[in-house]
Amino acid sequence: MLARRPYSIAELRRALERQFPSDPAVGDAVARLRQLGYLDDKKFAEQTAYSLAHNRALGPHRVRRELKAKLVNYKFIEPAIEAAYGEIEPRQLLEKVLDRKLRSLKLPVTQRKLASLCQSLLRRGFNSGDIIKAVRARLELRPVAENTGLTELENSEERG
In this structure, what DSSP letter does residue 57 have? Predict the structure, then answer.
């Protein structure tokens, strides 16, 4: 299993227990893999967070959700996210993703297209306040952004 992709400790344990139910050797196997250095949640979290941030251009909120879904020990998640975004600021990454999305967006930009664009950026894990600022800073989006007021995003920013 480890030859195909890396696993967190809990994720591998769960997969082995599913494959070999009620086998006492699962715990021993996981312990041995940890001892040999094949399983390390800290290293796994750092590598996964870096990959998600730099290769897939995901925001910190989405990276956090992905690491939690992979059952990474919670004490390694925040340090891994901080390390992954140490080289690149989430705002810069947001600008890069927005540039890419705007190239494929068919003009004219309508309120519906703008809402869809903002929702896709939210799903990618970027902060709603940063999304609002980035969208309002774009000349091609400014007229539509000012007409809509981006109220839905602003309300979600106030709540959370």
Answer: -
Measured distance CA(14)–CA(12) in Å, rounded: 5
Q: What are phi and psi of 59, to 5 degrees?
A: -80, 170
Q: Tens place of pLDDT for every residue, the chain, 160 residues?
A: 999 999 999 999 999 999 999 888 999 999 999 999 999 999 999 999 999 999 999 999 999 999 999 999 999 999 999 999 998 899 999 999 999 998 888 778 788 888 899 999 999 999 999 998 998 888 877 777 666 655 555 555 555 4
| Separation of CA 133 from chain center | 20
Residue 53: Cβ within 10 Å count: 25
The reported pTM is 0.84
Structural contact between residues 135 and 145, judged by C-beta atoms closer than 8 angstroms = yes
Q: Which residues have C-beta within 8 Å of that of residue 117, sequence separation ≥ 6?
A: 98, 101, 105, 135
